[in-house]
Amino acid sequence: MRVAVLASGGKDSTYASWWAQMQGWSLDALITVKIQGDDSMMFQLQNTEIAEYQAKSIGTRWIQVISSGIENNEIDELEIAIRNSIGKEIDALVVGALRSDYQKTRIERMCEKLGIISFCPMWHHDPNEHMNSLIDHGFDVRIISVSSEGLDESWLGEKITKESLHRLKKLSEKYRFNLDGEGGEFETITLDAPHFKKPIICEGETSWDGVRGTWELTKIQLSA
What we know:
Blueprint lengths: L1 E5 L4 H12 L3 E10 L14 H9 L2 E7 L6 H12 L6 E3 L6 H14 L2 E3 L7 H10 L3 E7 L15 H14 L10 E7 L7 E9 L4 E10 L2
Parallel strand pairs: 1-2, 1-4, 2-3, 4-5
Antiparallel strand pairs: 6-7, 6-9, 8-9
Helix pairs in contact: 3-4
């Protein structure tokens, strides 16, 4: 089985790429959608360029797709890019969707048109189990944006550990947001994982408007 992974650089798509390799499949490419606008119904906005370094660390190709972010166009733009680049070289596309029917159904329809299989290995995973699994298997996950009540600027750049996850869980229960960030309450990047040959080193700057904020990467490199 030759597969590509739809990779934002975040925790879920990185877990999906590890899962694909654990099946014994050939991971032929990480495909990243770069949104040029200010919003997207489908794809992560911040720091997606880190997926290029993930691909280098894994030892696979990185394909960047530039998208307008316009709701009715972005999935078509992804389909065209896959068809023109590696559509005939892969058997399946693996995605890190957790519970978004909006994302899952559109990816499945696109894959059907492309004649490939769609895999969502973490679909409806328990949030607490999923987050703990990332820690237990050695994923270095950092929070890069927050946009939910209860999450302040101190979380920007924070590494997800057992201790920080405990604090995050308490806040999610108090303020009623998704522990795994599936509702867009926070976004992440992954700097290390079991299938990385080298960890990623980065620096960032915090931007905070009093309600929401981001940790924008200013420097990215693979460890020597």
